């Protein structure tokens, strides 16, 4: 297997001026044109790292936050965040700048996966990305979490569809006054792939296919709203197979469902070469779901009419759109709420809650300007203040292997053996091998009721020796565990452990906690007076780990 890759990874910046040919009737940059530019920039970054030709494998959900107008400058920055043997995650950031005011705004932040195209029959194993900055390290760590979401997306979707099936007659009759038949929104378009649409190997550009999909989807949506729809987001583009110069691409678009001010359009792409075209043997190469809204001349959102599926497949797509919307809203909520203390634990958002759990701990650990406030033998205490949030870091030197410390600290049923603030701890739900939900109670403070918590604990093992083990903690809301009048329900914003290996028999354990008033009593007072309590808890933690570790 050949190893290829530039050590520093791919880092590409592309600037474009928006000309009238790139714009729609409102003078705004066409979403299809922007998708082509994004794909081209990301592909350049992937090829810069791989050193060989690369093809688009998928593009994660894309949200368009701002519109670019004729005369403005579009800047697209693309960078390889992580290499996974033969594939890479590329981060894409799009900004728009007004040349007259010099104001710059973010248009979109997206992530794409590219695959190195093998030379001949051999396989290519990509070199790891060289991490040069704190941001590089952050994105490198979080790329693993985003990959977990990609791989688990289909299972989450199927679970939601099963829930929908249980709630009622899934394929029953559908009757609603003034509903529009989905048959009226069906659009088919055929494109012939020519050399300008492909790379130097003859493979059709993924961005070109995305642009054609946006065009046909826009026509489908316009038949429902009788206006000019605006693309706001795209559910994951996934390329199932290649197409090449000379192929005929058949695009079929239809409205799946409407949600008051938005509409989802599904697009299926099939490819045919000359022989397949004659025999009507299609190759399914791509499917995607595009979400549009529409505005009037005053910029006010228009309301879409309800739709009426007319077939069993139409009903499946109708319910599928509802499931995807739940996932989409969960993603938007999780990834936009920086400091939301407690998240609902539901089928639609579990992947994003665990992502935000790990991401929050990773970002907290990477914050600059930590101030050391206390030292004691094998313990160091650091603090970081930002607004009304005080963050705590306790660094402990422990004489046991890192993997053993990880095993003991990730099982919270052991916590009460060394942390006096844990009175009881029970597992409510073992989600999978890496995620568990616990119910925790804490002893009462003078004059106050005892506190309780419902927390998600996410554990991650390192992918390489230089990375830490991670145990992330945050509060979640379970409908099966509502607040009790006997306890004061408290929230954990962000907490957890990072465990670094120092040798075969020692490690450094770093405990983190973002603290707000009432979350940790011994930190609610001034920190100087409470440092003794923190040190005592840390000493008990070290004692527990080393005692347990000696038995293995």
Blueprint of the fold:
Layout: E1 2-4, E2 11-17, H1 31-50, E3 54-59, E4 62-63, E5 73-84, E6 87-97, E7 104-116, E8 124-126, H2 134-167, E9 180-181, E10 187-192, H3 206-225, E11 229-234, E12 237-239, E13 248-259, E14 262-272, H4 274-279, E15 283-294, E16 307-308, H5 312-336, E17 342-344, H6 350-366, E18 371-376, E19 379-386, E20 389-398, H7 402-410, E21 424-430, E22 435-442, E23 451-460, E24 469-477, E25 488-489, E26 494-503, E27 506-515, H8 521-524, H9 527-549
Parallel strand pairs: 1-8, 9-16, 17-24, 23-25
Antiparallel strand pairs: 2-5, 3-7, 3-12, 4-11, 5-6, 6-7, 10-13, 11-15, 12-15, 13-14, 14-15, 18-19, 19-20, 20-27, 21-22, 22-23, 23-24, 24-26, 26-27
Helix pairs in contact: 1-3, 2-5, 2-6, 5-6
Protein described:
Helices cover 29% and strands 35% of the residues. With 552 residues, it is α+β, with helices and mostly antiparallel strands. Strands 2, 3, 4, 5, 6, 7, 10, 11, 12, 13, 14 and 15 form a twelve-stranded antiparallel beta sheet that branches. Helix 2 runs antiparallel to helix 5 (312-336). The chain is globular. The chain starts with a strand and ends with a helix.
């Amino acid at each position: 297997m050949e190893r290829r890759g530039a050590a520093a990874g791919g880092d590409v910046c592309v600037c474009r001026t928006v000309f009238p040919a790139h714009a729609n009737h409102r003078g705004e940059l066409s979403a299809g044109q922007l998708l082509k530019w994004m794909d081209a920039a990301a592909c350049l970054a992937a090829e810069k790292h791989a050193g060989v030709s690369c093809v688009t494998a998928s593009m994660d959900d894309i949200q368009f936050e701002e519109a670019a107008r004729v005369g403005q400058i579009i800047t697209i920055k693309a960078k390889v965040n992580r290499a996974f043997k033969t594939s890479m995650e590329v981060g894409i950031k799009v900004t728009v700048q007004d040349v007259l005011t010099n104001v710059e705004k973010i248009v979109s932040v997206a992530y794409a996966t590219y695959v190195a195209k093998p030379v001949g029959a051999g396989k290519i194993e990509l070199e790891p990305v060289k991490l040069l900055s704190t941001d590089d390290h952050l994105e490198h760590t979080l790329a693993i979490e985003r990959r977990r979401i990609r791989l688990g997306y289909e299972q989450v979707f199927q679970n939601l569809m099963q829930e929908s099936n249980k709630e009622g007659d899934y394929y029953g009759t559908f009757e609603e006054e003034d509903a529009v038949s989905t048959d009226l929104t069906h659009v088919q378009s055929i494109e012939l792939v020519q050399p300008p649409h492909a790379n130097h190997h003859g493979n059709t550009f993924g961005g070109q296919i995305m642009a054609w999909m946006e065009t046909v989807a826009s026509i489908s949506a316009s038949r429902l709203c009788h206006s000019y729809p605006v693309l706001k987001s795209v559910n994951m583009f996934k390329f199932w197979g290649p197409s090449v110069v000379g192929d005929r691409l058949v695009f079929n678009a239809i409205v799946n469902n409407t949600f008051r001010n938005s509409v989802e359009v599904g697009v299926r792409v099939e490819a045919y070469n000359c022989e397949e075209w004659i025999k009507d043997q299609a190759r399914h190469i791509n499917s995607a779901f595009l979400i549009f809204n529409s505005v009037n001349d005053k910029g006010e959102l228009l309301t879409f009419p309800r739709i009426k599926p007319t077939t069993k497949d139409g009903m499946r797509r109708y319910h599928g759109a509802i499931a995807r919307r739940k996932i989409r809203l969960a993603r938007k909520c999780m990834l936009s709420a920086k400091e939301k203390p407690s998240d609902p634990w539901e089928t639609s958002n579990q992947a994003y809650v665990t992502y935000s759990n790990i991401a929050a701990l990773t970002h907290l650990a990477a914050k600059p300007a930590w101030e050391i406030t206390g030292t004691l033998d094998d313990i160091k205490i650091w603090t970081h203040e930002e607004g009304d949030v005080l963050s705590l870091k306790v660094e402990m030197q422990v004489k046991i292997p890192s993997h053993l410390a990880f095993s003991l600290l990730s099982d919270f049923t052991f916590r009460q053996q060394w942390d006096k603030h844990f009175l009881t701890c029970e597992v409510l739900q073992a989600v999978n091998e890496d995620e568990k939900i616990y119910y925790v109670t804490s002893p009462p403070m003078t004059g106050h009721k005892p506190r309780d918590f419902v927390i998600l604990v996410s554990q991650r093992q390192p992918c390489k020796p230089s990375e830490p083990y991670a145990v992330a903690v945050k509060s979640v809301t379970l409908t099966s565990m509502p607040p009790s009048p006997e306890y004061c329900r408290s929230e954990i914003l962000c907490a957890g452990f990072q465990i670094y290996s120092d040798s075969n028999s020692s490690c450094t354990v770093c405990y983190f906690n973002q603290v707000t008033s009432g979350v940790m009593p011994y930190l609610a007072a001034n920190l100087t007076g409470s440092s003794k309590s923190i040190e005592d808890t840390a000493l008990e933690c070290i004692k527990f780990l080393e005692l347990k570790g000696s038995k293995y």
